[in-house]
Amino acid sequence: MGILKDRTGETKTTRHGQVMTIIKYNNCHDIDVEFDDGTIVENVEYSNFVKDTIKNPYRPSVCGVGYIGIGEYSFITNKRIYMAWRGMLERCYVARSLNRSMGASYKECSVDSRFYNFQYFCNWFINNIWDEKCIILDKDILIKNNKIYSPESCILVDQRINCLFTKRSNYRGNCCIGVKYYNNHYVAQCNDVNGVRRCLGWFDTEMDAFNCYKKYKEQVIKYVADEYKQKYKNFPDKLYAAMYNYKVDFND
Predict the structure, then answer these.
(1) Fewer CB near the last or first residue (10 Å), C or N of the chain?
(2) Nearest-CA neighbor of 219 among 250, 248, 185, 178?
(3) pLDDT at 43 (0 to 100)
(4) Which CA distances in Å does 76 have to 68, 82, 115, 215, 251?
(5) Superfamily for 170-244?
(6) Domain with CATH 3.30.730.10 in the chain
(7) What is the tens place of the pLDDT at every residue in 24-43?
C-alpha cells in the first residue's frame, strides 16, 4: 500500500484570481481549503481543487455584489426566493437593467449590504411571508420614495397590493399621476378596489382632476388595507399602517 502524500500547503490560483490553499489533507476525497479572504471550505475532493471547481461561497458572484454564503439555504431548493434576490440586485447594479424602460426609477437605488448574502436574504424572506401569494419584494410602501432595499424598508406583498402603488411614470404622458388630458379637458382616472379602471370625472384644471384622483385613490388603498387586515391573520401591522397612512402627491 502506497504512502499517503500530504498535500497540506499546496496552493492554486482560481480562474477568478483568488488563491486557495489546502489547510488539511485527510485523503484525496477529504480536504479542507482556505481562500485568501479567509473563507474555509471543508470536506471537498482534491480532484476538484486541481480542476478549480471549488467555489468560494463568499465571492461576489451575482451582479458584482451578491454571494450565496454558507448556511442551510440553497438557491436550487429556494428558487423562488433566489429569483427575487437576484432580481433585486439586477435592478440596482446591472447596466442592462438600468437601460430598460423601467430602469430610470432604479438608477439611484442600492441594496443594504446585509442583503448581499443570500443566506441572510432567504431567512428574512421566509420570516416575512404572510401568505403564499405575497412573493413580490417592495422597497417603498413602508417608506415612500425609499431608494435602499433593506430589511427595515422592505416588505412582501401580493400582486394586488403591488398594483395599488404602480405609478407607470413612463406611460402617463405629461400630466400628473391619475390625470389624462383629452379634448381640452383633464380627466381623472383610477382603478377601483377590484382593479377596474374608472373615469372619475372631467375637469378644467389639472389640479382639480388630481385632487379628485387623490381622494379616490387613498380611499381605495384604505379599503384594501382593511380587507386584508380582516382576511389574513398574519397581515403585517406595519404594512397595514403604511397603507392606511399613505398620501398621494402631485409629483408622484
Answers:
(1) N
(2) 248
(3) 95
(4) 11, 8, 18, 45, 42
(5) AP2/ERF domain (3.30.730.10)
(6) 170-244
(7) 999 999 999 999 999 999 99
